[in-house]
């Protein structure tokens, strides 16, 4: 009887391992058959948007580790995924859908987004689960971009995000990635907080928020950029003023890009800091385009042609370039770059509409994921890019 029970337990363990480890790998293999068959922009846009809306209600969990075996152990230890990672996945999907609604008066999508909002906020406009980390600020920014809702209803939640950010300000006057990492500044933080700070600051007449966003960007430009090439390091040490991690980490460029371009886009043309950020956009656009590969992608390490392409880098930089194309002097350069990025992303889209081959979550400064798979963050920025301009055309290459 005991041996029989042990046998059943072993069979159960094997079944768990198969279901958690092997089946997802098989599904990835199966879903990549006939990948990249989209050759029509409108059909592709419809497909990625439909899946993006579906994912907003059931966002795929992004793993903390790169383990593909005995994954259930990570689950038991609570190391499978983290809420902070999911914040920027949901935020990007929400940003994508808000851009879609600017071009489409879709009552069903509005209804679905209202249901999603009800999961996140109570009737008083406060969070049901208040974000603890700066990652949550990009989600708050995405909420502010929903034109069909009364954003002032959610002011208590937005105020809470501002207070959380204030609690992360270090002695140098810039925002920490985590309050227990006081000595470092991460490029990720620019993407997380700067668009929110500008949008929130302008709407509610809080000049200190806008000033903080500009300081976060310009300080990083002074201390965290590679001289002569103007691409960011992963982080820098505040006291020593030393770069940390990799210069040219693809998604690091993406975080800087979206933080800069969305902050720039939120500012009216007559704002005191508009011209300063316009110069930053020009400088970074001219730097980043040099590392775009022939197929239209950027690699996960943009400075090495041998590295794997990264869809998350390509989608975020594509969004940056498309917005930057509004600036005289770099318009043609940036629009061509955005066209090439979109054409590449079509080639790595599964039949289901899922954009594939995004680098997984980063483990630490200088410790990068070796997994490349779907990422809702990438999906959201593809939707944003394809709905930004109704007359936008993908140039096939």
Task: Outline the secondary-structure elements.
Elements: H1 2-31, H2 41-57, H3 71-77, H4 83-103, H5 107-120, H6 136-144, H7 155-166, E1 184-186, H8 188-203, H9 207-223, E2 233-237, E3 242-247, H10 250-266, H11 274-288, H12 311-324, H13 331-347, E4 358-359, E5 372-373, H14 376-387
Antiparallel strand pairs: 1-2, 2-3, 4-5
How would you describe this structure to a colleague?
- Keywords: Hydrolase, Membrane, Transmembrane, Transmembrane helix.
- The chain crosses the membrane at residues 6-26.
- This is Glycosyl hydrolase.
- This protein has 397 residues and is mainly α.
- The protein has two domains: 1-31; 32-387, Glycosyltransferase.
- The chain has 14 helices and five strands.
- The chain has helices spanning 2-31, 41-57, 71-77, 83-103, 107-120, 136-144, 155-166, 188-203, 207-223, 250-266, 274-288, 311-324, 331-347, 376-387; strands spanning 184-186, 233-237, 242-247, 358-359, 372-373.
- The chain has a three-stranded antiparallel beta sheet. Strands 4-5 form a two-stranded antiparallel ribbon.
- Strand 2 (233-237) and strand 3 (242-247) form a beta hairpin.
- Helix 2 (41-57) crosses helix 14 and helix 4 packs parallel to helix 6 (136-144).
- The chain is globular, with a radius of gyration of 21 Å.
